[in-house]
Amino acid sequence: MAITMMNPGGLPxxxxxxQVSIASGSKxxxxxxxxxxxxxxxxxxxxxxxxxxxxxxxxIGTALSGAGGSFDDVAKLTVYVVDWTPDxxxxxxxxxxxxxAKLGITxxxxxxxxxxxxLDVPDHLVEVEATAIIx
Length: 135
Known about the structure:
The chain is of the alpha+beta class. It has one domain (3-134): CATH 3.30.1330.40. It contains two helices and six strands; from the N terminus they run βββαβαββ. It has helices at residues 49-66, 89-103, and strands at residues 3-6, 20-23, 27-34, 74-82, 111-116, 126-134. The strands form two sheets. Strands 3-6-4-5 form a four-stranded mixed beta sheet. α1 packs parallel to α2 (89-103). The mean pLDDT is 92. InterPro entries: RutC-like_sf (IPR035959), YjgF/YER057c/UK114 (IPR006175). GO terms for molecular function: deaminase activity.
């Protein structure tokens, strides 16, 4: 695998992700922000943050598969959530957990979570972009 995840000493250990990813692969892949569209461009989970997070992660998996990789090759995620408040964290984690089960992964790459005022389509509650390293 091209990515090694770690929590170096001196930084807090966070259960849901690692603080550092070390890349050793040869192909750098940038996945555009994925929203909760299915293959036909229909929004999945309108009004349901967990369902939309799940679809975003599945879309990243599909994009990486097209590039010859998988979600296991993700080195960094950036998550944008509309009108973020900390009470939305359980829904975010629920969506990640459901997607992880479907993808057969434990997604622990470093991640940045940003609250935003809006996304491109009013029905979209979340957008997730990824950087991956593929051997």
